[in-house]
């Protein structure tokens, strides 16, 4: 349009030249669009020239038979060009209005378009889940019982540190190490967690009798330090009784070369620290299978925990008055997780300032002077290493086809940002509940004395759900995904591709339809289906090769 305006102004100025006017008059005499009685007067000539131009412009859009074929072709091309520009403009506007993060945004509420439900919305396709079966269970009668504890190479003792799920992994690894060393395992102690300040003992959460009996063909396990060892205070305090140089993800050979001689010499040794101190692909397959046996068969929660979890799961399946499926959502957006991630999230200037102070106080070495954090936050979001916000989770679930009526059990701590942060998720999926809303205060009071017991309830309700959705990494999510895979891959476990989602949320030209297509196609293979293992794989999330057999 700018070029057209520029050419028109040049033509107007050129007509003021006497020579050009004479040439123009001569041309006009032969034109069928100019009357034969051409006037000599300049003013009259200008008026006719103006009318002449108007008639030429009008002829672009009329079927006047006097218009030359050349002008008809120009008018057709011009019209098509205008239509094309208009269509492109409308398409761009439509895409911008329907970008996934706008979704008809109304304050803090998101309204995304409806998406048709897929046939496999609530379970993985049957044809994809029948090729593998679990095979880490104990084979009764196949192996003889182990020799008495005084005939083993000695005793090992560990403190299982961290939260419930980190402790669970440590217990599995302790049994495996005892097998590698042919040592007797003293029942692990659940060390007090610095965050939760929990004093739970092994017998407060797990069935000790079942644990010892189920593993009697694999490892000799005793409940306490033997009576003949009188100086119990030495364990974990004396360097003579503690192995402290175990590297992370150590191979089995490291324990044989470095730990076994000291166990044989001292008879009782403590291993500290013991978080992630045994590798995966650098230990014999039968050791990995033993770890699965401990995790999926030997470690059982106490009966009252199992019963309460079954009751909560049953209430989730009957919230609509008839049988309904339910989703379990592990929402990791607590203040500590947001701070530790060092990612940037939407919020007011005051919120961002408070978060900066919190990070500076809790992680001063990583915070430094704060100048590098913006670039770090961008990089982590690009790589998909930031926790998903509740609003982002809502948009992803809607794009997958889950309707507003979906029943969702939320396993989460105190969400950072409170109700305002939860509003987009709760408004799009109003049937969100927690164990505190499903159970009475009296029912939960018996579990409150041990924070680990409450975590166990969340774990079991999520494990029993029809669909499990994680929003960030961690032992809780990977243990649930692994267990659901071990149970046959039929149960759907969604692990969002946070890198792709971050790219889509940040694209101002991404429309709703292509966003839905990206979400559906990308997550077809991220739902807990059978997946071959690879070097340095995580046994707890994918137990396929060592712990499952071809059906």
TrEMBL record:
Pathway this chain belongs to: Glycan metabolism
Q: Which UniProt keywords apply?
A: Carbohydrate metabolism, Fucose metabolism, Glycoprotein, Glycosyltransferase, Membrane, Transferase, Transmembrane, Transmembrane helix
Its record classes its membrane topology as:
Single-pass membrane protein
Q: Where in the cell is it found?
A: Membrane
Give one GO biological process term. fucose metabolic process
Disordered: annotated segments: 1-55
Is Lipid metabolism a UniProt keyword of this protein?
no
- Predominant location: membrane
**Ranges that cross the membrane:** 74-94
Q: Where is the signal peptide?
A: none
Q: Which family does it belong to?
A: Belongs to the glycosyltransferase GT106 family.
Indicate what this protein is called per its UniProt record: O-fucosyltransferase family protein
Organism whose genome encodes this protein: Glycine soja (Wild soybean)
């Amino acid at each position: 349009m700018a070029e057209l305006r520029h050419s028109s102004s040049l033509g107007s100025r050129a007509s003021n030249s006497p020579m050009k006017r004479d040439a123009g008059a001569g041309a006009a005499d032969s034109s069928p669009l100019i009357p034969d009685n051409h006037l000599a007067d300049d003013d009259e000539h200008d008026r006719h020239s103006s009318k002449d131009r108007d008639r030429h412009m009008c002829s672009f859009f009329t079927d006047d038979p006097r218009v030359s074929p050349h002008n008809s072709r120009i008018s057709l091309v011009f019209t098509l060009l205008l239509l094309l520009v208009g269509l492109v403009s409308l398409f761009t506007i439509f895409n911008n209005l329907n970008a996934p993060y706008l979704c008809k945004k109304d304050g803090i509420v998101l309204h995304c378009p409806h998406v048709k439900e897929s046939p496999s919305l609530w379970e993985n396709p049957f044809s994809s889940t029948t090729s593998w079966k679990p095979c880490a269970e104990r084979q009764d009668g196949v192996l003889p019982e182990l020799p008495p504890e005084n005939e083993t190479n000695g005793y090992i003792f560990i403190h299982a540190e961290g939260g419930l799920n980190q402790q669970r992994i440590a217990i599995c690894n302790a049994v495996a190490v005892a097998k590698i060393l042919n040592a007797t395992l003293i029942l692990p102690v659940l060390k007090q967690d610095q965050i939760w300040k929990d004093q739970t003992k092994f017998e407060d959460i797990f069935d000790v009798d079942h644990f010892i009996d189920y593993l009697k063909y694999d490892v000799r396990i005793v409940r306490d330090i033997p009576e003949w060892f009188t100086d119990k205070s030495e364990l974990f305090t004396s360097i003579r009784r503690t192995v402290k140089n175990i590297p992370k993800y150590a191979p089995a050979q490291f324990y044989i070369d470095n730990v076994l001689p000291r166990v044989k010499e001292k008879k009782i040794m403590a291993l500290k620290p013991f978080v992630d101190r045994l590798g995966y692909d650098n230990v014999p397959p039968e050791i990995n299978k033993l770890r699965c046996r401990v995790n999926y068969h030997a470690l059982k929660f106490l009966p009252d925990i199992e019963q309460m979890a079954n009751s909560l799961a049953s209430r989730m399946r009957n919230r609509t008055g008839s049988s309904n499926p339910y989703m379990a959502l592990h929402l990791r957006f607590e203040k500590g997780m947001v701070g530790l991630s060092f990612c940037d999230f939407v919020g007011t200037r005051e919120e961002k300032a408070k978060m900066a102070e919190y990070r500076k106080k809790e992680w001063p070495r990583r915070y430094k002077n704060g100048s590098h954090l913006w670039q770090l936050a961008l990089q982590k979001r690009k790589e998909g290493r930031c926790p998903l916000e509740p609003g982002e989770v809502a948009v992803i679930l809607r794009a997958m086809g889950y309707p507003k009526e979906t029943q969702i059990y939320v396993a989460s701590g105190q969400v950072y940002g409170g109700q305002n942060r939860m509003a987009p998720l709760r408004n799009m999926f109003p049937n969100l509940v927690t164990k505190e809303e499903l159970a009475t205060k009296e029912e939960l009071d018996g579990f409150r004395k041990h924070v680990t017991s409450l975590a166990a309830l969340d774990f079991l309700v999520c494990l029993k759900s029809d669909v499990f959705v994680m929003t960030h990494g961690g032992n809780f999510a990977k243990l649930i995904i692994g267990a659901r895979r071990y149970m046959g891959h039929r149960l759907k476990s969604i692990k969002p591709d946070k890198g792709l989602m971050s790219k889509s949320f940040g694209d101002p030209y991404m429309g709703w339809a292509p966003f839905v297509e990206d979400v559906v196609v990308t997550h077809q293979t991220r739902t807990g289906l059978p997946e071959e293992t690879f070097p340095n794989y995580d046994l707890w999330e994918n137990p396929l090769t060592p712990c499952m057999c071809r059906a």
